[in-house]
Amino acid sequence: MTFSVSILATGSELLDGRVVDTNSNFVAKELSERGLKLRRVLTVDDDMGELVAGLRELAAVSDLIITSGGLGPTTDDLTRDAVASFFGVSLAEDPEGRKHLEEFYRKRNRPIDTNNLKQALLPIGSTIIPNEVGTAPGFIASRQGGPTVCSLSGVPREFKSMFMATVRPLIEAKTHGVEALHRVTLKTFGLPESTVGKLVEGIGLPEDVVVSYRAAFPEVHVVLKAPQSVSLEAHAEAARNAIGKSFIYTEDPSATLGSALHHLLLGHGETLATAESCTGGMISEIVTRTPGSSATFKGGVVAYDNSIKEGLLHVAYETLVTHGAVSAETVREMAEAARTRCGATIGVSVSGVAGPGGGTPEKPVGTFFIGISTASHSFQVQSLYVSERTNVRMYAAYVALDLVRRTVLRLPLPKSYPEIR
Hints:
Blueprint: E1 5-10, H1 12-15, H2 22-32, E2 38-44, H3 48-59, E3 64-68, H4 79-87, E4 91-93, H5 95-107, H6 114-117, E5 121-123, E6 127-129, E7 138-141, E8 148-152, H7 156-174, E9 181-189, H8 193-201, E10 210-216, E11 219-227, H9 233-243, E12 248-250, H10 257-268, E13 272-276, H11 282-288, E14 297-302, H12 306-311, H13 317-323, H14 328-342, E15 346-352, E16 367-374, E17 378-384, H15 389-409
Parallel strand pairs: 1-2, 1-3, 3-8, 13-14, 13-15
Antiparallel strand pairs: 4-5, 6-7, 7-8, 9-11, 9-12, 10-11, 15-16, 16-17
Helix pairs in contact: 2-7, 3-4, 10-15
């Protein structure tokens, strides 16, 4: 059984770059979990003619069309009019929709005017889709022999709520019997995408196992997918071994390096403190994105100026004069001070030349040093990552966090990154 789903997204803000269409991405992921994929995604301006033409174009190839946006109270919200025109019906006020709007504004002690009530108008014969987190209700419209149209709010929070409550169950009912996919996600750091792709390609996956790659700088994600009837674990294990298990920091699709590290530290009874120069607090920010990070993150110092390195982190003046702020000697002392002054079990530090200026022949732009300190040992690494400033800083932060991960797990330092001196 084949069942095709397409999206018609409307809004000038999507076409001029003001807003990114995250709703289509969300639907694509939801469909993929069920062994389906989007047939087409069409984005049009807030124009009646373009909306109707878009519906006709998608109707030729789709069993279900999801519209995103254009259900608000302003004059450029034209989706309900376009869908009514497409089906050859008029608009009529929906009593349930009006009641929802009146209740919404009453709870907020705000008056409701005729413009707001426009949102209660739905194509005759359609079924309302309640909007539990916003004002504009959606609707489902269809006709014999044609596609079903599900119109949802374009606001991502509202779109997701309406989709999960109404549209997803509809899709599941219509695709009963379609074999869902199962998948294994390998999130890696430390190898370039081309290398990862070559390694996985070398294991010779069968045709019924689909592999896809996503370069989410500075990570590379590998996803293996197959029908539920196909055993995937043996192929996943081959992929793990080919890539190298030490480069895979998680197999949880929803995890990040920061959250994975938090749970790793928690499980091993370790705590972390940071001392950052060129990354300007980026390491700490990545770590503290995870709820509950206070259980494993003690604190950090952004020591940009040498006087802060000396005063707060006790880096010796002689070290700075002799070796410089960007040096193995300096980050060693920074990491040690971060660990002991914050009372953590692991200290990590970074200092580098992020650019665009400040480089020298000995330490060109992109050079950075990472220091790791524990109660039993310490080490420093040096890397050169030639790129623009934002990428240098992000890469340095990831190297620092990955070295903490490897320290906790007692994994060897990779030869692929960074250059160790």
